[in-house]
C-alpha cells in the first residue's frame, strides 16, 4: 500500500520539525494501516531529511534542529526496520556482508536500513556501526570470511575514507577476496569507478539488488 497523503504530510512535518514522538506515532499508524515500510523510507523519510539538510545548508536551521530531526528519524526508522525484518521472512542464505559508515562519519540511519534489508534478503550482516576505520573494515572482513564490504558515507569530507579502505585492501593484497559496494549521499557511480569499488547504489533497495549480483561476480583482479 502506498503512503496516504495525510500520513505523508504529518510524518514529513514531524521529521522536518524534529518532533520525535509524533514521527513515531505516525509511523506506527502507517504500518498498522498496512503501508509498505520501504515506501515510507523512500517517499517520505529521505525527501523530508533532504529538505532538513537543505535548510541546514542555507542557514534556515542550525545544529540543534538538525539533531532533533535526526532523533525523530531514528525513532521512526527503528519501527520501519522492524517491519522490514518481519516482511523478509525466511530466505536462502546469500553470503556475508560487512557493513559500516566510514571513518569520521556518524550518519547511520541509511546504513541501518540497508543492514536490515540485507538481513531480510538472507545475508548474514556484520554491522560495524559508524566511524569505521579502513583497518576495521579489513579485519572484520577477514575474520568473518565476508563476501561483500559495504561502505556508507554521507559527507564529502568523509568520502575519501571509502578510497582509503579500497587502497588498504589492495596494499595488503586481499582486495580480490571481496566485492565492494559504496553508497550514501556523498557517493555516486563516478566516484565508485574512480576508487575501484565494484558497485554504487543510490538507495537501499538498489544496494540489495547489487549485493545479490555481486555474490556471483568473478574477482576483479
Ligand atoms: Co548531518 N549532514 N551532519 N546529521 N545530516 C548531512 C549529511 C548534510 C548533507 C546536510 C547538509 O548540509 N545539506 C551535511 C554534509 C555536507 C557534506 O557533504 N559535507 C551534514 C553535516 C555537515 C553534518 C555535521 C558536520 C553538522 C555539524 O556538526 N556541523 C555533523 C557531522 C557529524 C559527523 O558525522 N562527524 C552532522 C550530524 C548529523 C546528525 C547527528 C544531527 C544527524 C545524523 C543522525 C544519524 O544518522 N544517526 C544528521 C542528519 C539527520 C543529516 C541529514 C539531514 C539526513 C541524513 C539521513 O539520515 N537521511 C543529511 C542531509 C541529507 O542527507 N541530504 C545530513 C535519511 C537516510 C535514510 O538516507 O543516509 O542517504 P541516507 O541513506 C539512503 C541512501 O543514501 C542509501 O540508502 C539509504 C536509503 O535509501 N545508502 C546506501 C546509504 N548508505 C548506503 C550504503 C550503500 C548503498 C546505499 O552501500 C554500502
Total count of strands: 5
Proportion of residues in helical segments: 55-70%
Q: What ranges have pLDDT less than 50 throughout 5 or more consecutive residues?
A: none
The residue-averaged pLDDT reads 94
Question: Which of globular, elongated, flat, extended, rod-shaped describes the shape?
Answer: globular
Order of helices and strands: HHHHEHEHEHEHEH
The number of helical segments is 9
Output the strand order for the largest sheet: 2-1-3-4-5
For the biggest sheet, the summary is:
5 strands, parallel
Class by SSE composition: alpha/beta
Could you say which small molecules are bound to this protein?
Answer: CO-5-methoxybenzimidazolylcobamide
**Rg:** 18 Å
Instruction: Give the end-to-end Cα distance, rounded to a whole number of Å.
Output: 44 Å
Strand fraction band?
Answer: 5-15%
